[in-house]
């Protein structure tokens, strides 16, 4: 038997309704915030992620699925959504339209990492991207969209943490102070952090190794070194969140795992999905479009992993709507009845209703059992007497009540 590759998971028919529910809520939130869907290729040129995501990140260094295609081009399955959206924004001249450009995506993504609860090698993300606005209002709106999405899914025990990691100007001073603090501890740090020390010391704060976390616990805080512009921006983001009624905490340790972030960064965190409890994360990335060859463009967004979200909902008992069965099951007693049942099912579906009929040659008793298992609302039996009379009885399965119907009325009744 051939099994699914490690780190991937089948979504089975009995579970897919949960995914559809989450995706439906995501699309409704996107519509309410006037976000339009963007769909980008599942693979991109590797250079896009080297330039956009950053060569000091774990994603680029350890986790990308990269290969040569038949034209000897280096291709990578996308490990996240933002770089591809940024490339599409530049390539398709979206900056020429009304600003800000507000988009969302629901995508598969791929990272080679150790599979664990809620983290797979093939995973899925819902993300929001807003390009063209430097305003703190854009930051607050993106954060409030994430908060509303989680709230509509019934997730209550979750915290919003925010921080600012400044811009290139103020980060240079901070990096010098951070390196000054870290230098005496370099020998105690992991190999990855020692490599990051010269390339991007801010990334050391994102290390998950316990030894490194203990060292960085006493490190200087970026928010204490913000320039006037970044400090004012962060202050206004907080004021906007308060005005909108979104509760938050300031966590100076948040830097996010991607090099393109600037100024605002944020995470929604839960304690109900293990040690790495980030459910949703995002922030501002004002330099990304320019880094990829476009004109300087402010941008802000977030991404939420659907597998981790599903795990959180199941762990906390967040409600999923019932996976409803067909509106009617047409049961038949012979070949003529089965053909008639099929024709009625076709007519009901054509009018927008849901209908099912037997295709296994079951007995009438077995058909009723099957109808009950699949959650059919009504069952209609089509036998010799019903066919002769041109009418039938529709049994409501919830209470056993009967509705008499003429054959000509059946399609409209169940539509």
Topology of helices and strands:
Layout lengths: L15 H17 L3 E2 L5 E3 H7 L5 H6 L1 E4 L5 E4 L4 H10 L9 E10 L11 E10 L4 H17 L6 E6 L3 H15 L8 H9 L10 H7 L11 H16 L5 E2 L11 E8 L8 E7 L3 H4 L7 E7 H11 L11 E5 L2 H16 L4 E3 L6 H10 L4 E5 L1 H6 L1 E6 L5 E5 L3 H5 L1
Parallel strand pairs: 1-5, 7-8, 12-13, 12-14
Antiparallel strand pairs: 2-4, 3-4, 5-6, 6-11, 7-9, 9-10, 10-11, 14-15, 15-16
Helix pairs in contact: 1-5, 5-9
Describe it.
The protein is α+β, with helices and mostly antiparallel strands and 415 residues long. It has two domains: 16-167 and 227-316, Bira Bifunctional Protein, Domain 2 (BirA Bifunctional Protein, domain 2, 2-Layer Sandwich); 328-414, Rossmann fold, CATH 3.40.50.800. The protein contains 15 helices and 16 strands. Helix 1 runs antiparallel to helix 5 (136-152) and helix 5 runs parallel beside helix 9. The chain starts with 15 loop residues before the first helix and ends with a helix.
